[in-house]
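Researcher: Next sequence.
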Amino acid sequence: MKLLKNYFQALFSPISLKKALVLSLFAHITIAACLAVIANQFQLSNQFQPPLIFDFVFSPVEDLKNSEPNSLDLDKNPENPKSYDAIQKSESSTQSFPVEKPAPESESITDETVNVENQPVDEFGKIEPGYVPESEKPVLNENLFAVNEIIPAAFTMPKTGIDISKVVPAKISMSPKQVKMLNKKFRKWTEDFYKMDLPDSTLIWEHKGEQYKATFDHRPAKNNMDMDEVLISIQTEKDGVELSSHMKMKRLAFSNYAQFVDNWDPLVAVHNDELDGRFHANSQINITKSRGVAPKFYGKVTTSSLEIKNSVSRMPLFNEESIFLGGLETGVKPINLPRKLFPFISEADTALSQVYKVNEGAKIVFHKNGSFTVTKFKTGQKRKIKMNQDVCYIFGGKKAKLHLEGIVKGKALVYAADKIIIDGDLTYANHPLTTNKTDDYLGLLSEKNIEIAHPDVTGPGDLQIFASLYAKRRFVVRHLSRSGDDTLYIFGSLAAGSISATEPRYATHIAFDKRLERNRPPSFPMTNRYEVSQFESKWNVKSRN
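Model: Next structure:
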């Protein structure tokens, strides 16, 4: 016990600085020697493993055009001249220093006799680790790949010719200020394009310090049922990048409006009526409501007047939104009626079409087999005419009042210098709402009036008219005192200089034929107004090459 006590006292007793330095130096030398021995053992254990050599060769694309397929399987294809076994066999026949093939995990690694002549060896007679003999240095083949490089089994060259349009965003959104500015431009172009002398020309302007250019490409109607179009390319530059956008304007025909009225009769009010489609009036319109009955406008209503004459505005329960369901816009620029309708029917329209002229009053009845019968009132002469597959034009002379009814199969336009009087139902052989195969169109044009005949002629019940109507002066329903619970149903469109009341004889229901958004009846008159038919508020970014 005493001996142990003396040992600890000697161990923890103070020593001089000289003795401390000697002990510290001795400890560091001992630790360094131990680490060196351990490191040498690891180095000797790995000295017989062949070094892994990775050679990466990057070559121009044009040098690889005639190269072999990019996907190589070096482990499983012994006939491949680049396979591992083939390379080993070729090298062993020409070199005295064979490359050792790694053994499977289940086999032990054994030493092999090697020729170490002229090779640097260590003190144990072993080849120095990391040494690569000249025979083992990579040899490039004609395809610029090292023969003994290590390549993955499924190596595929990267694709070249990157499409920069997929890297740089193709489109960017317009700023709110740009959208607002362009909307003002679009409105002016749609309203005044016909008098701006812009077809096939360029317009340049500045806004907020930026310059814009619009190029106009006017494309007239391709045929008598098509409508004019204007393609507009808009360009500007932002921070040195070219930006462009495109829009398309379509010229509107009068058949694009479910109802169009030039001068609204102040004695007429819209009451028990429904309108499914856009409505426009060049003057103030009048609406009224009574006993819970009110009109319904399902499409957008536009008027050149600044207000609507509303006889029910004092009623506390009245709500404009319950009447103008598609929206209301006042103060719109007027759309002028053409002076003459006949110029819309050009010689080009009628050159290859069927034309039939009627110089006196006559009754025209259409048949569902694609024909019509003309009966002259004075002589009683009757003639049946087969409509061809193109367009049939029926022209009424200056004193010819044309009475119409029947079922239309095909495309027809009836023009009257005097009046058109509807004696009964005018419908299509194939209703557009029940089949998408119909190609039946009827247009009625009158330089004066289009009228609904006396009740004794039309008979009791509803009256159906499938057509686009244009009465330059007035659309008239006669003998209003003949009251009933009947409906005047117009499927198509109605345009007129003015209209009469239809009640109490008829409540009016106009349903727009949606086919008229794309096509107009043959040679139906067009307005001087355009509308934007295609536009996206984004810029196309020009790719930098």
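Model: Residues 168 and 543 are 7 Å apart (CA to CA). Helices lie at 2-12, 17-45, 84-92, 176-192, 347-350, 455-458.
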